[in-house]
Amino acid sequence: MSAQKIATVAMIAAIYAVLTVLVAPLSHGLVRFGSRKF
């Protein structure tokens, strides 16, 4: 594996981790809000 490939994989992993951290509370809040509403 070249250094550039490792850097690309690390960047994708970091973006995926940030998205997961941001989306998880949002989706959890939406589910909680929806179940309270209906």
Automatic annotation (TrEMBL):
Annotated TM spans: 6-31
This protein's UniProt keywords: Membrane, Transmembrane, Transmembrane helix
Domain of life the protein comes from: Bacteria
This protein's name: QueT transporter
